[in-house]
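Q: Got a minute? One more chain.
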Amino acid sequence: MKRILIFTYLLMAAVAVNAQSAANILSRAAEKLAAAKSISAEYAVVADGRTMNGNITVAGEKFFIDSREIKSWYDGKTQWTYSAEIGEVNVTEPTAEELAQVNPFAIINAFRSNFTARTLSNKDGVVTVEMLPKVSGDIKKTILTLNTSTLFPSRIVIYLSSGSVLAINIKSISEGMRLPDSHFRFNPASMPGVEVVDLR
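A: Always. Here it is, folded:
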């Protein structure tokens, strides 16, 4: 009985250290993202058997996504999304979960308030962390892979409650200069004649 209790205490201690380690690296990654003037990344998203390549520029909560299929601007409150297939711009005020499915960096910033984390593996300069939402919603869990030297993500896999899986592979990433707010807002003059649908 005594051996079982000791083993239980050791196991509980290991889980606590594991959680602290995951929280620590995610905190450092979030701090680096927040301190950067801007970050640009080239990525590939795989979902439902389709692959979409694109580029994203992030500055704090703001972002601009540019791909062949969609363009999306977010200024910290409002999101404008242009779909090449539909040929119109939709205007929304997205939730934190919706942002996490579009902006691969948003989930790192949201982990403190919305997720609990544990380390799955940590070797050869790469750490893989599992993030589970504190409240059930669209996201069932997320597996995040980070470079321990740069603290930048290299792969993010989001498992949705619907059963779909969204895999984001980051091909390249770099820090950049400070960008004006207009970079993260849709300018109707850039797409004359395109219908804008306000869904707020």
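A: Confidence is low (pLDDT under 50) at residues 1-20.
Q: Perfect, thanks.
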